[in-house]
Amino acid sequence: MATCFEQEGSLFNFVVRDGNGVKGLVDSGISKVPDQYIQPPNERIPELSIDRQQYFQHVAPIDLSLLDGPSHDQAAEAIVKATESVGFFQVVNHGVPIQLLESLKDSAHRFFGQPAEKKAVYLKGVSPSPLVKYATSFAPDCEKSLEWRDYISMAYTTDGDALNHWPNHCKEVALEYVKTTRRMVEKIMEVLIGHLLGVTADEDEYQSRVAELVGALTDVRGVNMNFYPRCPNPDLTVGVGRHCDPGTLTVLLQDGIGGLYVKLEEEDEQDHQHKDKATAGIKQPQWMEVPPIPGALVINVGDVLEIISNGRYKSAEHRVRTTSIQSRVSILLFTTPPHTHKIGPLPQLVDRDGAARYRDLVFLDYFSNYFTNAHKGKKALDYAKITSL
Ligand SMILES: O=C(O)CCC(=O)C(=O)O
Fold first, then answer.
1. How far apart are the first and last CA of the chain?
2. Which domains, from first to last, does the chain contain?
3. Origin, by domain of life (predicted)?
4. What is the bridge-based pairing of β-strands 361-362 and 286-289?
């Protein structure tokens, strides 16, 4: 029999405070989504049939192994172009074992398939480690409508800490994900930072300046596992609302269910100076589904890269639609600078552009501000934007 949530606050307590999550709600036998999950019409996500042709026309998957051979420059150009236009692209032949990707998805299902009391031990305030947090929705205390998603965050400090503190169901595979994505993230970042500084791999500066910046910008890493239970009303809900990631680069593994949407930016005068063909002709903001490609990883540009590139690189606004068919999992590797790191547009770019579009700030200030609000598209970047331009 379905659990009764008539009393004021009882659903919120059940889902958020007691750690039953959306999974517990679905398991309780609901046949339609409770009002707390119904999004205002402008936030709902119409189902788009995946238009692979449209997708590949904008961002064809990039074969990362080409960076190591004679086609390096073409692969690098494709990375830069995708980062400047959409801020989202998929990579194949990335060096992360496919078997590991399968194990990650399995372990996410195993973790979230446990009874609520096993997951609730990681709720904020009771978790035995500050490195691990289990939660639901993004900011339940300040959201008008809740997101249809449960997740677990695992911050990485050392291998030993991960093995000691991360949940048993996922610690080994999640740690392997942190390790095996390292070189891939570095390679992509070396291309992006090298392009910003105008240096190529054969110059001495590449080794020093680029490597130093790449190291600093991706120094802090963590893994999030998302679980989106099947939803009786995908037309009324969101899995994750419109947002950009606050950090540097995110590596996203999605399963075959689909539902990840990225926003293609409108053209504007200023953008036009920095980019070319990929979004030319797009006048209205449009959402495009990022099709699941077996074995591929999605690379998602975060706010830090937009800021340090003085707006050349696009932090991608994205969101997730729910599905009534089957539960979906995604596993994200986040990279950010250390909290104390100062971020701001690179001086060379400010000189070239004639003005800084973002102010210098300490990353922790940006990060803390990001987490004080509900998801709201690209609005978080306003905190860093210089508006008097
Ligand atoms: O599940 C996905 O595909 C994306 C998730 C996401 O954007 C997030 O967790 O921030």
1. 59
2. 10-383 (2.60.120.330)
3. Eukaryota
4. unpaired
